[in-house]
Amino acid sequence: MTFFTVFFQMLALLIMIGAGYLAAKTDMLDEHTNNQMSGMIVNVFNPLLVLASSANAVGQIPLDTMAVVGLIAAGMFVFFIIAGMLLSPFFEKDREQRKIYQLMFVFSNVGFIGIPVISSIFGAEYVVYVTEFMLVYTFVFYTYGIALMEGRFSPASLKSMINPGTIFGLAAMAVIVFEIQLPDFIITAVTYLGNVTSPVALMAVGFALANSDLKKVFGQPGLYIFSVVKLLILPLLMLPLLKLAANDETLLPVCMVMFGMPIGNMPLILGNQKGMDVTSCSAAIILTTVLCVFTVPVLIICAGW
Questions:
Q1: Nearest to 130 by CA among 10, 258, 1
Q2: How far apart, in whole angstroms, are the C-alpha atoms of residue 131 and residue 232?
């Protein structure tokens, strides 16, 4: 697949972000509605898309491939944790603020943005791979992420791992592993509901962009350097090891896309909870989300797809 083919598919996603931006600027979408939409995405549409992808991929994905994806996902987070510890001092001198950068290196938007990207480029059946990354993400967030911000690990934080995303993710894994054939009417229903994920999630990004200070988002040179490191350099550094682990011609670019996802909302949420200044984090989330339209095609081409 050529660079421009992938780029135009990513550009379609950018147009959806633009739709959310215009909806917010013309008062068709307010904060209350956006919060409700985001809640529906996280708790309903996204989990159902994950289940639908697994139901439609029964018998098509070998179990050994699923095991490889799980190991790759775990390896990705270990790599990003180490990279965050080593590189965050170059971007932030304050010790507390440095924790935010460490989180930004580790916790990418593998679900909210990853699912629309994977689904649009490779097909909905490959969303099941994203599920594995999301499950590992959840475990790492409620262990390493919470411990980093709190200064200690609390077993109580693991209770938060029980949520619709985790439950449906495990259900999707069970469907694949045990080759469970769901009734056609259930597959149809969850597929239609799951397909709502991509446009609504991207419109939510557009809403965030419309309500941001664009000078702070696009006017900080340091954030561009951080974005290049996060979206391009680190994923490309992992590519040689990925080639050793992944022998499937489609699995390789799918994992590269996961490596190159923009920053997720969790660092922002944790920072807010701790009463920290999250201005740069908010700007970095928006900037990396927009820039990934251009960086994802590069990663896919470098992966040889």
A1: 258
A2: 23
